Amino acid sequence: MTATHPALPDDTPRRRLLVSIHDVGPRFESEVDALAARLEPMLGGPRFAMLVVPDHWDEAPLARAPRFAARLRSWSDAGVEMFLHGWRHRDDSAHTGAWQRWRATRMTAGEGEFLGLDRAEARNRMRAGRAVVEDAIGRPVAGFIAPAWLYGEGAHAALRDENFAMAEDHLRVWDPARDRTLARGPVITWASRSGSRIASSLFVAALARRALARSATVRIAVHPGDVGVPHILASIDRTVGAFAASHRPARYAELAPATAI
Fold it and tell me: Which string of DSSP letters, residue by residue, matches 191-259?
Protein backbone atom coordinates (compact mmCIF):
# COMPACT_ATOMS: atom_id res chain seq x y z
CA MET A 1 0.00 0.00 0.00
CA THR A 2 1.35 3.41 -0.96
CA ALA A 3 1.50 5.85 1.95
CA THR A 4 -0.47 9.04 1.50
CA HIS A 5 0.22 12.34 3.15
CA PRO A 6 -2.70 14.03 4.93
CA ALA A 7 -4.07 17.37 3.76
CA LEU A 8 -2.42 20.10 5.81
CA PRO A 9 -3.39 23.62 6.87
CA ASP A 10 -2.05 26.53 4.82
CA ASP A 11 0.51 27.54 7.46
CA THR A 12 1.91 24.03 7.88
CA PRO A 13 5.10 24.66 5.79
CA ARG A 14 6.26 26.89 8.63
CA ARG A 15 5.70 24.12 11.19
CA ARG A 16 7.90 21.04 11.42
CA LEU A 17 7.31 17.61 12.91
CA LEU A 18 10.50 15.70 13.80
CA VAL A 19 10.04 12.05 14.72
CA SER A 20 12.79 9.70 15.88
CA ILE A 21 13.21 6.04 16.79
CA HIS A 22 15.65 5.59 19.66
CA ASP A 23 17.92 2.69 20.66
CA VAL A 24 18.28 1.37 17.13
CA GLY A 25 20.56 -1.65 16.87
CA PRO A 26 20.57 -5.40 16.38
CA ARG A 27 19.35 -5.99 19.95
CA PHE A 28 15.96 -4.48 19.12
CA GLU A 29 15.65 -5.36 15.45
CA SER A 30 12.04 -6.59 15.55
CA GLU A 31 10.89 -3.64 17.67
CA VAL A 32 12.57 -1.14 15.35
CA ASP A 33 10.91 -2.82 12.38
CA ALA A 34 7.52 -2.55 14.09
CA LEU A 35 8.00 1.13 14.91
CA ALA A 36 9.21 2.01 11.41
CA ALA A 37 6.26 0.19 9.85
CA ARG A 38 3.90 2.04 12.17
CA LEU A 39 5.33 5.49 11.50
CA GLU A 40 5.76 5.38 7.73
CA PRO A 41 2.05 5.52 6.76
CA MET A 42 1.40 8.36 9.22
CA LEU A 43 4.38 10.39 7.99
CA GLY A 44 4.02 9.73 4.29
CA GLY A 45 7.18 7.63 4.05
CA PRO A 46 10.40 7.10 6.03
CA ARG A 47 10.38 10.68 7.31
CA PHE A 48 11.92 9.98 10.66
CA ALA A 49 15.34 9.72 12.26
CA MET A 50 17.01 6.71 13.83
CA LEU A 51 19.28 6.96 16.87
CA VAL A 52 21.83 4.16 16.59
CA VAL A 53 23.61 2.52 19.52
CA PRO A 54 26.90 0.87 18.44
CA ASP A 55 26.89 -1.81 21.18
CA HIS A 56 23.83 -1.74 23.41
CA TRP A 57 24.86 -2.69 26.97
CA ASP A 58 27.92 -4.44 25.49
CA GLU A 59 25.60 -7.18 24.24
CA ALA A 60 24.74 -6.22 20.64
CA PRO A 61 27.74 -4.94 18.65
CA LEU A 62 26.68 -3.39 15.37
CA ALA A 63 30.17 -4.01 13.98
CA ARG A 64 29.49 -7.75 14.19
CA ALA A 65 25.97 -7.60 12.74
CA PRO A 66 26.47 -7.13 8.99
CA ARG A 67 22.88 -7.94 8.09
CA PHE A 68 21.51 -5.26 10.38
CA ALA A 69 24.20 -2.82 9.23
CA ALA A 70 23.04 -3.40 5.66
CA ARG A 71 19.49 -2.58 6.72
CA LEU A 72 20.68 0.65 8.32
CA ARG A 73 22.37 1.60 5.07
CA SER A 74 19.19 0.87 3.15
CA TRP A 75 17.16 3.07 5.53
CA SER A 76 19.78 5.79 5.27
CA ASP A 77 19.74 5.59 1.47
CA ALA A 78 15.95 6.04 1.64
CA GLY A 79 16.39 9.31 3.54
CA VAL A 80 16.25 8.26 7.19
CA GLU A 81 18.61 10.46 9.22
CA MET A 82 21.04 8.48 11.36
CA PHE A 83 22.26 9.90 14.68
CA LEU A 84 24.92 8.42 16.92
CA HIS A 85 23.23 7.54 20.22
CA GLY A 86 26.05 6.97 22.68
CA TRP A 87 28.26 3.91 22.65
CA ARG A 88 26.76 1.32 25.01
CA HIS A 89 23.76 3.27 26.39
CA ARG A 90 24.60 2.09 29.90
CA ASP A 91 25.62 4.49 32.64
CA ASP A 92 28.71 3.10 34.39
CA SER A 93 29.81 6.36 36.08
CA ALA A 94 30.00 7.01 39.81
CA HIS A 95 27.96 10.19 40.19
CA THR A 96 28.76 12.80 42.82
CA GLY A 97 26.39 15.50 43.93
CA ALA A 98 22.68 15.23 44.68
CA TRP A 99 21.55 16.76 41.37
CA GLN A 100 23.62 14.42 39.24
CA ARG A 101 22.53 11.39 41.25
CA TRP A 102 18.88 12.44 40.93
CA ARG A 103 19.20 12.85 37.17
CA ALA A 104 20.97 9.49 36.85
CA THR A 105 18.36 7.58 38.85
CA ARG A 106 15.08 9.44 38.33
CA MET A 107 15.31 10.60 34.71
CA THR A 108 16.44 7.21 33.43
CA ALA A 109 17.01 3.64 34.62
CA GLY A 110 20.81 3.51 34.58
CA GLU A 111 21.08 4.49 30.93
CA GLY A 112 22.40 8.07 31.02
CA GLU A 113 25.74 6.97 29.64
CA PHE A 114 27.18 10.44 28.95
CA LEU A 115 26.01 12.16 32.13
CA GLY A 116 29.09 11.40 34.23
CA LEU A 117 31.87 10.96 31.66
CA ASP A 118 34.87 13.25 31.59
CA ARG A 119 35.83 15.00 28.39
CA ALA A 120 38.43 12.48 27.24
CA GLU A 121 36.25 9.41 27.79
CA ALA A 122 33.21 11.06 26.20
CA ARG A 123 35.33 12.00 23.18
CA ASN A 124 36.72 8.46 22.88
CA ARG A 125 33.26 6.91 22.90
CA MET A 126 31.93 9.45 20.42
CA ARG A 127 34.80 8.79 18.03
CA ALA A 128 34.52 5.03 18.30
CA GLY A 129 30.74 5.07 17.91
CA ARG A 130 30.83 7.45 15.01
CA ALA A 131 33.28 5.20 13.15
CA VAL A 132 31.04 2.15 13.62
CA VAL A 133 27.83 3.86 12.52
CA GLU A 134 29.38 5.71 9.58
CA ASP A 135 30.99 2.49 8.36
CA ALA A 136 27.55 0.88 8.43
CA ILE A 137 25.63 3.64 6.64
CA GLY A 138 28.36 4.84 4.28
CA ARG A 139 27.92 8.55 5.07
CA PRO A 140 28.38 10.98 7.98
CA VAL A 141 26.00 10.74 10.91
CA ALA A 142 23.49 13.58 11.26
CA GLY A 143 24.66 14.35 14.78
CA PHE A 144 24.93 13.01 18.31
CA ILE A 145 22.12 12.52 20.84
CA ALA A 146 23.09 11.24 24.28
CA PRO A 147 21.19 8.29 25.77
CA ALA A 148 18.26 9.55 27.86
CA TRP A 149 19.11 13.05 26.54
CA LEU A 150 21.51 13.45 29.48
CA TYR A 151 24.84 15.29 29.10
CA GLY A 152 27.47 16.18 31.64
CA GLU A 153 30.11 18.89 31.29
CA GLY A 154 32.52 16.40 29.75
CA ALA A 155 30.00 15.37 27.11
CA HIS A 156 29.28 18.98 26.16
CA ALA A 157 32.99 19.68 25.76
CA ALA A 158 33.50 16.51 23.72
CA LEU A 159 30.62 17.47 21.42
CA ARG A 160 32.43 20.68 20.56
CA ASP A 161 35.72 18.81 20.08
CA GLU A 162 34.16 16.31 17.69
CA ASN A 163 32.35 18.90 15.57
CA PHE A 164 29.01 17.14 15.40
CA ALA A 165 26.55 19.09 13.28
CA MET A 166 23.69 18.72 15.71
CA ALA A 167 22.72 17.55 19.20
CA GLU A 168 19.46 17.31 21.12
CA ASP A 169 18.25 17.17 24.70
CA HIS A 170 14.81 17.23 26.36
CA LEU A 171 14.23 20.91 25.60
CA ARG A 172 16.16 21.91 22.50
CA VAL A 173 18.12 21.03 19.36
CA TRP A 174 21.42 22.87 18.99
CA ASP A 175 24.59 23.26 16.96
CA PRO A 176 27.40 22.27 19.39
CA ALA A 177 30.25 23.92 17.47
CA ARG A 178 28.59 27.33 17.54
CA ASP A 179 26.49 26.79 20.70
CA ARG A 180 23.46 27.99 18.77
CA THR A 181 19.95 26.79 19.48
CA LEU A 182 18.19 25.52 16.35
CA ALA A 183 14.79 24.62 17.84
CA ARG A 184 13.16 24.87 21.25
CA GLY A 185 10.43 22.92 22.97
CA PRO A 186 9.97 19.70 24.94
CA VAL A 187 10.28 16.34 23.27
CA ILE A 188 7.20 14.11 23.51
CA THR A 189 8.08 10.58 24.55
CA TRP A 190 6.71 7.65 26.51
CA ALA A 191 8.03 5.59 29.44
CA SER A 192 7.18 1.90 29.70
CA ARG A 193 9.14 0.87 32.81
CA SER A 194 6.20 0.83 35.24
CA GLY A 195 2.47 1.34 35.41
CA SER A 196 2.83 4.77 36.96
CA ARG A 197 5.27 5.92 34.29
CA ILE A 198 3.04 4.59 31.54
CA ALA A 199 0.08 6.48 32.99
CA SER A 200 2.00 9.72 33.39
CA SER A 201 3.45 9.59 29.87
CA LEU A 202 -0.01 8.96 28.39
CA PHE A 203 -1.28 12.00 30.29
CA VAL A 204 1.63 14.20 29.17
CA ALA A 205 1.23 13.13 25.53
CA ALA A 206 -2.46 14.01 25.62
CA LEU A 207 -1.65 17.39 27.15
CA ALA A 208 1.08 18.02 24.56
CA ARG A 209 -1.33 17.42 21.70
CA ARG A 210 -3.12 20.57 22.83
CA ALA A 211 -0.32 22.61 24.35
CA LEU A 212 2.08 22.26 21.41
CA ALA A 213 -0.49 22.45 18.63
CA ARG A 214 0.89 25.73 17.28
CA SER A 215 4.57 25.20 18.06
CA ALA A 216 6.96 25.86 15.22
CA THR A 217 8.83 22.58 15.78
CA VAL A 218 7.40 19.50 17.49
CA ARG A 219 9.62 16.55 18.38
CA ILE A 220 8.33 13.03 19.05
CA ALA A 221 10.56 10.15 20.16
CA VAL A 222 9.60 6.47 20.36
CA HIS A 223 11.51 3.56 21.90
CA PRO A 224 11.62 -0.21 21.43
CA GLY A 225 9.92 -0.74 24.80
CA ASP A 226 6.84 1.08 23.52
CA VAL A 227 6.03 -1.84 21.22
CA GLY A 228 5.01 -4.08 24.12
CA VAL A 229 2.45 -1.67 25.62
CA PRO A 230 -0.80 -1.36 23.62
CA HIS A 231 -1.87 1.82 25.44
CA ILE A 232 1.41 3.50 24.48
CA LEU A 233 1.09 2.41 20.86
CA ALA A 234 -2.42 3.87 20.74
CA SER A 235 -1.11 7.12 22.23
CA ILE A 236 1.72 7.22 19.69
CA ASP A 237 -0.81 6.79 16.89
CA ARG A 238 -2.99 9.61 18.22
CA THR A 239 -0.05 11.92 18.86
CA VAL A 240 1.80 11.41 15.58
CA GLY A 241 -1.47 11.50 13.67
CA ALA A 242 -2.54 14.76 15.30
CA PHE A 243 0.72 16.54 14.62
CA ALA A 244 1.09 15.13 11.10
CA ALA A 245 -2.20 16.88 10.36
CA SER A 246 -0.91 20.26 11.55
CA HIS A 247 2.85 20.06 11.00
CA ARG A 248 4.95 18.94 8.05
CA PRO A 249 6.99 15.76 8.68
CA ALA A 250 10.53 17.06 8.27
CA ARG A 251 14.21 16.28 8.65
CA TYR A 252 16.51 17.53 11.37
CA ALA A 253 18.82 18.76 8.61
CA GLU A 254 16.32 21.50 7.87
CA LEU A 255 17.27 23.14 11.17
CA ALA A 256 20.17 24.88 9.46
CA PRO A 257 22.32 27.40 11.40
CA ALA A 258 20.58 30.19 9.53
CA THR A 259 17.39 29.33 11.43
CA ALA A 260 19.05 29.46 14.86
CA ILE A 261 17.18 31.33 17.56
Answer: --SSHHHHHHHHHHHHHHHHHTTT-SEEEEEE-GGGGG-HHHHHHHHHHHHHHHTTSEE--GGGS-GGG
Residue 120 has pLDDT above 90, yes or no: yes
CA 158-149-21 angle, 5° bins: 115
Q: What is the amino acid identity at position 68?
A: F
Helix pair 195-211, 230-244: axis angle to 10 deg: 10
> DSSP state, 28?
G
Q: Can you list the positions of beta strands (E) in 111-212? A: 143-144, 167-168, 172-175, 180-184, 187-188
| Count: domains in the chain | 1
The CATH number for 254's domain is: 3.20.20.370
**7, part of any domain:** no
* 14-41 pLDDT, tens digit each: 899 999 999 999 999 999 999 999 999 9
What pLDDT is attached to residue 102?
A: 42
Q: What pLDDT is stored for residue 1 in this prediction?
A: 40
Q: What percent of the chain lies above the pLDDT cut of 90? A: 78
181 within a domain of the structure (yes/no): yes
Mean of the per-residue pLDDT values of the chain: 89
Backbone angles phi, psi at 83, to 5 degrees: -105, 145
Task: Please check whether residue 5 lies inside any domain of the structure.
Answer: no
As to burial, measured by CB atoms within 10 angstroms (0-12 exposed, 13-18 middle, 19+ buried), residue 142 is: buried
